[in-house]
Amino acid sequence: MTLHMQNSKNFYETKCRQISRTKRHEKLISENIRLGKNVKIRENAIIRDNVVIGDDVTIFPNVYIGENTHIGEGSTIQYGAFIEHDCNIGKHTRIGTNAVLRRETNIGDNSIFGSLSASEGKNWIGNNVLIHSQCHLTSGLIIEDWVFVAPEFVGANDPDMLHGRRHLKKFVPKAPRIKFGTGIAVNVTVLPGVVIGRECIIGAHSIVTKDVPDFSIAYGVPAKVAKTVDEKWKLPEELYQEFRRRVTEEDLAKFLDKVLSDYRQ
C-alpha cells in the first residue's frame, strides 16, 4: 500500500483510520510532522515527532525515522533503514536498505549511503558522496564533498580502546577526516585522528595509520605513499571552489567542537 499525500490533512485522516482499524496502542506516524508535496510513505513506516520531510520523498516499508530529523526534497529512504533522532539528510540523497544512521548524522545533497552501512552518529558527510554497502562510520567522522568509499570501510575513533577502562581516562572521540574528492578502495581501515588529504587514492586492504598528503596514492599495511595522482584524474577546480565557498574550515571546526563538547561534559 502506498499513500500519496497531496496535503498533510488528507494524510493524517487516512493514517488515523488505518491505526484505528489495526487497534495499535501507539501511532506509527506522529501527527506532529511536516510533509511536503507528493511524499510516498509505504507500510509499517514509523515516523516520530517534529520530523520534516520535503517534496517528492519516498519512504520504503519498515523504515524508522526519529524525532527532529529533516529529509530534503527528492530523497529516498529504502527498506528497513533506521534513522535516529536529530539527523539531517539533504536533497536527492538515498539511504540504502537496512542502513543505520544514529543520532545527529548529517548527510548532504546528491549523496548515497549504502545498504547495511552504519553511521555511529555525530558525523558530517558532504554533497555528492558515495558510501558503498557495509561500511562503518565512527562518531565524529568528517567526509567532504565528492568522496567515494568502497565496501567494508572502517573508521576508528578510540586510540586507547577504553571499553571497561573509562575510570582511567575520559573517552573523547578522535575520528578520521577524509578530504574532498578522495577515493577509498575496498576493505580499508582508517585509524583514529588520521587525515586523508584532498583527492587521494587509498588502495584496497590498506590500514591507514598516518596522515596522507593531498593528491597522494597510498596503499599497504601500514599504508605508505607510493606516488602522486596524475593530473588527468584530478576533479575540476571549480568543484573544489564551490565546496570551499559553501563549507569553510571554521564551519567544520565548529562541528567538531560541538561533537567533542558532548563528551567533555
Count of helices? 3
Strand fraction: 25-35%
State the CATH topology: UDP N-Acetylglucosamine Acyltransferase, domain 1
CATH architecture: 3 Solenoid
Overall pLDDT metric: 90
Helix content: 10-25%
How many individual β-strands?
Answer: 30
Shape: globular
Determine the oligomeric state from the structure: single chain
For the biggest sheet, the summary is: 12 strands, mixed
Biggest sheet, spatial arrangement of strands:
1-3-6-9-12-15-18-21-24-27-29-30
Low-confidence stretches: 1-26
- Whole-angstrom Rg: 20 Å
Can you identify the CATH superfamily? Answer: Hexapeptide repeat proteins
- How many structurally independent domains? 1
Measure the end-to-end span: 46 Å
Structure description:
It is a single chain. The strands form four sheets. A twelve-stranded mixed β-sheet has the order 1-3-6-9-12-15-18-21-24-27-29-30, with helices on one face. A nine-stranded parallel β-sheet has the order 2-5-8-11-14-17-20-23-26, with no helix packed on it. A six-stranded parallel β-sheet has the order 4-7-10-13-16-19, with no helix packed on it. Helix content is 15%, strand content 26%. Residues 1-26 have low confidence and may be disordered. It has one domain (44-163, 171-264): Hexapeptide repeat proteins (UDP N-Acetylglucosamine Acyltransferase, domain 1, 3 Solenoid). The protein is globular and about 55 Å long. The N and C termini lie far apart (46 Å). The protein is of the alpha/beta class.
